[in-house]
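dumping this here so i dont lose it
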């Protein structure tokens, strides 16, 4: 893939970020939100960290630049900030094998063993890894069109594994990839053998013509697998901007068109994997909850914000977007109450949350199941 494919994401990422910022600023937050985590300081200032569902197929959270995407990008870029060059491996599963990779157990096993292989034979012992489940829409190549419900996403199962690690130029990259391809080929053949064996076992008890046909098909597919025919891409980038774009690209959502079977299979599947770092080795400032109240800070007082549990959005909650002094992070200030003065020129807007609209939107998402 050309570099430009990865560079395009910085535009869509900005666009998605702006979309969420505007929705939050206006109080008309995306419907998937379950509410907010409330924070308060000793000085009585109240803040809200608005929560979104984060589902890959949510029409809002699936957007490039959504809060969940921003979160992934922040985590990954902190991990890789000391990388000189960044290498990028994409392991594609051949189309005739994909239906057999529709299993959380196999997906996990394949990833785990592949990472072990990289560690042992390639000395890649630190990196980040994430599956993409679907490719881009064949019609619009990801820019959004009618046939993909403007999601830009393809609708056929197309798992491929992305791995980022510290690495640069590799001389004779095909030669370098060969042992890995051999290993993948062996893995996939073995996986097909398990299927073939179960047919053989079945035939021992009960002769069934259909099973024979099925077995033939499985053997055919197995025979197509070879290291030479596998698609494994390696590339690398050497600037911070390009590194950032790779991270944004790998961490984006790809399962954007709702499909109930995929949803069930991937339920609670841990997709992002970070390997080789010790716990706490990298300070994750994105998760840093020890923030001081920016309002008190302006008056020279340090009051830490204490965050509470998730709260549902009640009527008559008003919010105001406030830029903090220090970190540049936006704080959402909230006040509750029926006081209409809250909205009069003070910058507060009512926080809207329409439950019946939520139901309608989800029904629409589900009915778009192709
Ligand atoms: Zn959502
Ligand atoms: Zn499309
Ligand atoms: Zn305060």
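and the seq i came up w/
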């Amino acid at each position: 893939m050309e570099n430009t494919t990865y560079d395009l994401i910085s535009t869509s990422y900005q666009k998605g970020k702006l979309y969420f910022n505007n929705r939050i600023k206006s109080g008309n937050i995306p419907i998937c939100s379950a509410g907010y985590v409330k924070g308060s300081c000793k000085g009585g200032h109240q803040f809200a960290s608005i929560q979104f569902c984060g589902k890959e197929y949510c029409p809002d959270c699936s957007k490039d630049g959504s809060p969940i995407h921003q979160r992934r990008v922040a985590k990954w870029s902190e991990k890789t900030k000391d990388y000189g060059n960044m290498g990028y491996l994409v392991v594609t599963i051949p189309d005739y094998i994909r239906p057999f990779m529709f299993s959380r157990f196999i997906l996990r096993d394949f990833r785990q063993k592949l990472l072990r292989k990289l560690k042992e034979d390639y000395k890649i012992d630190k990196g980040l890894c994430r599956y993409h489940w679907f490719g881009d829409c064949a019609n619009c190549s990801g820019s959004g069109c009618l046939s993909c419900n403007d999601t830009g996403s393809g609708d056929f199962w197309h798992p491929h594994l992305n791995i980022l690690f510290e690495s640069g130029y590799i001389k004779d990259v095909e030669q370098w990839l060969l042992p890995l391809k051999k290993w993948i080929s062996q893995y996939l053949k073995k996986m097909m053998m398990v299927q073939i064996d179960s047919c053989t076992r079945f035939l021992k008890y009960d002769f069934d013509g259909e099973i024979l046909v099925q077995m033939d098909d499985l053997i055919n597919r197995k025979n197509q697998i070879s290291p030479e025919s596998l698609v494994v891409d390696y590339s690398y980038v050497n600037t911070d901007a390009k590194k950032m774009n790779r991270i944004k690209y790998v961490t984006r959502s790809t399962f954007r068109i709702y499909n109930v079977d995929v949803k069930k299979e991937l339920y609670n599947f841990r997709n992002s994997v970070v390997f080789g770092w010790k716990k706490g080795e990298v300070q994750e400032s994105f998760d840093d909850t020890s923030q001081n109240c920016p309002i008190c800070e302006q008056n020279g007082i340090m009051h830490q914000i204490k965050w509470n549990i998730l709260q549902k959005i009640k009527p008559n909650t008003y919010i105001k977007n406030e830029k903090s002094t220090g970190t540049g992070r936006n704080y959402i200030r909230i006040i509750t109450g029926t006081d209409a003065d809250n909205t009069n020129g003070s910058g507060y807007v009512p926080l809207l949350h329409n439950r019946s609209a939520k139901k309608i939107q989800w029904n629409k998402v589900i009915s778009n199941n192709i």
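The pocket of zinc ion (ligand 2) is lined by residues 137, 139-140, 144-145, 147-148, 152 (CB under 6 Å).
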